[in-house]
Design goal:
This protein has about 120 residues and is an all-alpha fold. The chain has three helices and no strands. The longest helix is centred in the N-terminal third of the chain and has 60 residues.
Amino acid sequence: MKDHNFLDTVMEFEQQLESMQTQFEALKKFVALMMEEHQTLQMENHHLRTRLEEVLSHQEKMPMPLEEQKREVLDVGEGYDNLARLYHEGYHVCNVHFGTSRKGEDCLFCLAFLNKQND
């Protein structure tokens, strides 16, 4: 009786090992795919960084026309005006509660942000 029980235990253990082997093979395939994708993304990232550096160095060599400089300053002013308008309409413009209703109460984070933008 004990030998029969021992044999059943060994056979059950063998089935568990086969199941684990199957799972291990699947895991190895998954890891191989992830490593391949990781390598591809690293190469793409490297190429994009190189291209970005080329574009930025090219832009630094070319002076920005006066009209574009004025437009850039105006865009910042317009953005500030939009945020100030949103704040006065009763919405948060701070990064803590952005877009939520202020319910009529002043927010120190919003005020500090708007004052920083104004400087």
